[in-house]
């Protein structure tokens, strides 16, 4: 519901409020090598051979070795917009899934394919374990890219909308465990992008995940789709917020975001009518890194 959305500001950035806390109640300078062998960090070197795929674009680490934070692409780089979808499932929601609650949303993914919309799916490791066939299919589809939303969907700071908290000493392990779950599900190329559960982070969290070689990805447009039933309201909130280079946060969990697929069918043609081109987060980060 739109009324459930609010923003919280940390010292290092802006975080989404109750929207991203849905995982708690329902829920689609690198100092060491990255744990995921197909998505190296920003300091990896690569052969010029055309047979070796280029590394995904990342941003340079921030001051003091903090993981860089990306919220939107260049505003003067043309009418591009990235739709991102969080596949949320917390580590302790297995019983609910076994009882029939659906944390996936195949119809949403099918609509993205039918509409030919590139998208970035921020997936928790626990979601990949619950839906390995879907995780593998999303990861294998060139229309999409899979990024990291933690293993457990537990918070990386205190006071993050009721989410359980990951101990500071376990933050990097939680990120790496998600990549391990992706590989086990058959995702061959997970991107070196990380979205904090709840959007909550501070310097300690950025320092911890920096060791995994990731760029932290936030957003500048909140869809308000969590628990919303009014698809038109969700669509209008997105359409009102999008600017060139925007990153839109949405969800691909049926039980927690039932109106998202219907909203998508309005959002896509409306933005295309305005001249927008849909891209993955990697394209926006690449454009930002070139301008930087």
Automatic annotation (TrEMBL):
Keyword terms: Lipoprotein, Signal
InterPro entries: Glyco_hydro/deAcase_b/a-brl, NODB_dom, Polysacc_deacetylase_ArnD
Domain (NodB homology): residue spans on this chain: 79-279
Gene3D superfamilies, alphabetized: Glycoside hydrolase/deacetylase (3.20.20.370)
Region Disordered, residue ranges: 29-73
One GO-annotated biological process of the protein: carbohydrate metabolic process
The name this protein goes by in its record: Lipoprotein
Provenance organism: Streptomyces gougerotii
Lineage: Bacteria, Bacillati, Actinomycetota, Actinomycetes, Kitasatosporales
């Amino acid at each position: 519901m739109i009324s459930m959305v609010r923003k919280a500001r940390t010292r290092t950035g802006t975080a989404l409020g109750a929207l991203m806390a849905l995982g708690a109640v329902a829920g689609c300078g690198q100092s060491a090598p990255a744990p995921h062998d197909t998505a190296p960090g920003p300091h990896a070197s690569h052969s010029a051979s055309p047979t070796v795929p280029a590394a995904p674009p990342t941003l340079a680490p921030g001051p003091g070795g903090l993981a860089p934070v990306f919220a939107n692409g260049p505003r003067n780089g043309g009418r591009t917009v990235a739709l991102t979808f969080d596949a949320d499932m917390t580590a302790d929601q297995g019983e609910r899934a076994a009882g029939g609650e659906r944390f996936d949303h195949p119809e949403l993914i099918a609509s993205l394919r039918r509409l030919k919309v590139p998208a970035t799916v921020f997936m928790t490791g626990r979601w990949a374990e619950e839906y390995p066939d879907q995780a593998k299919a999303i990861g294998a589809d060139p229309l999409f890219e899979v990024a990291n939303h933690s293993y457990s969907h537990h918070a990386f700071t205190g006071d993050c909308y009721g989410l359980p908290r990951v101990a500071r000493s376990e933050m990097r392990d939680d990120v790496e465990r998600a990549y391990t779950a992706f590989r086990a599900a058959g995702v061959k190329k997970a991107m070196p992008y990380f979205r904090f559960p709840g959007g909550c982070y501070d310097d300690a969290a950025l320092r911890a995940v920096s060791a995994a070689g990731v760029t932290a990805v936030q957003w500048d447009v909140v869809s308000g789709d969590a628990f919303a039933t009014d698809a038109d309201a969700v669509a209008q909130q997105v359409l009102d917020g999008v600017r060139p280079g925007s990153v839109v946060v949405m969800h691909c969990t049926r039980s927690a975001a039932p109106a998202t697929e219907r909203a998508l069918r309005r959002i896509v043609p409306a933005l295309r009518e305005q001249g927008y081109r849909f891209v993955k987060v990697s394209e926006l980060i690449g454009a930002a890194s070139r301008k930087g």
